[in-house]
Structures are given as structure tokens and as C-alpha cells.
Design brief:
The chain is built from 4 helices and no strands. It is an all-alpha fold and 138 residues long. The two termini are 16 Å apart.
Length: 138
């Protein structure tokens, strides 16, 4: 494993406690605590989706870091892929959270654009890594 892979995996792993705290908060919310926040069903669903996407994409980010070592990618694109995966986790989950932020929000706010930008970043990262892996003959 390269030094850069270890560094990126270490940084990504340091984000996991924030996801854990989000899960704890979500569990408390769904158990009926924090009723003073007055969150509606739409908001709870968006928070649940944001939390789930963060967790799944962070795991994918860790796997991608290792796979980048085996892909035939130019250095600049290699960095894009290394950063693109965890960045997409932030943007996609942030889009879910931001789209539901506010008092009694019942439809997505304009911050939903973060989700779409994150999805595009994830798509570019996935395609780049996949093509890079297929191109590597070694």
C-alpha cells in the first residue's frame, strides 16, 4: 500500500465518528426524543437518507483508495479520484441534510443542488477509476 493510500484512508477513517454521531442523533430522533425540534416526516426521511449515503460512500471511498494504486491513471486524475470519492460523500449527504433544513420544510430547499453536484463527482470518480483499472494490463 502506498503512503498516499495510507494517508487518504487515515483521513477518511477520521470522518467516521461524525457519521457515528449522526447515527446516534438519528436513533434518538426516531425514538421520539428531541421533539422540541419539530421535525416532520419529510425531514426525518431526508436526514435518514443523508446519513445512509454518507456511510456507504465512505466505505466505497476506502475501497477506492486501494484500487487507485492498481489503476492506470495520470497523476492529476489519480488525485481527482482519491479526493472525488470522499468529497462526493460530503456533497451528497450535505445535499440531503441541507434540502431538509429549516422549520417545517416539506419539500427540498435550494440546497438540494449539493446532492446533484455530489452525484456528478461520484460518477466521474467511478468511471475514471473503472476505466483506469480496465486499462491497466499489469
Amino acid at each position: 500500500m502506498t503512503y498516499i493510500t495510507k494517508l487518504m484512508c487515515g483521513i477518511i477513517l477520521l470522518t467516521v465518528p461524525t457519521i457515528q454521531y449522526g447515527g446516534y442523533f438519528l436513533l434518538q430522533l426516531l425514538a421520539g426524543k428531541h421533539t422540541e425540534m419539530g421535525l416532520n416526516t419529510f425531514q426525518k426521511s431526508m436526514f435518514r437518507a443523508g446519513h445512509a449515503h454518507a456511510g456507504v460512500i465512505v466505505i466505497l471511498s476506502l475501497i477506492a483508495q486501494i484500487l487507485v494504486d492498481y489503476a492506470a491513471l495520470p497523476k492529476a486524475l489519480e488525485w481527482w479520484v482519491r479526493i472525488g470519492f470522499p468529497l462526493s460523500a460530503i456533497l451528497i449527504s450535505g445535499g440531503f441534510f441541507g434540502a431538509a433544513a429549516g422549520k417545517q420544510v416539506t419539500k427540498p430547499t435550494p440546497l438540494i443542488w449539493l446532492l446533484y453536484v455530489g452525484a456528478i463527482v461520484l460518477l466521474i470518480s467511478l468511471l475514471s477509476l473503472g476505466i483506469g483499472l480496465i486499462r491497466n494490463n499489469g
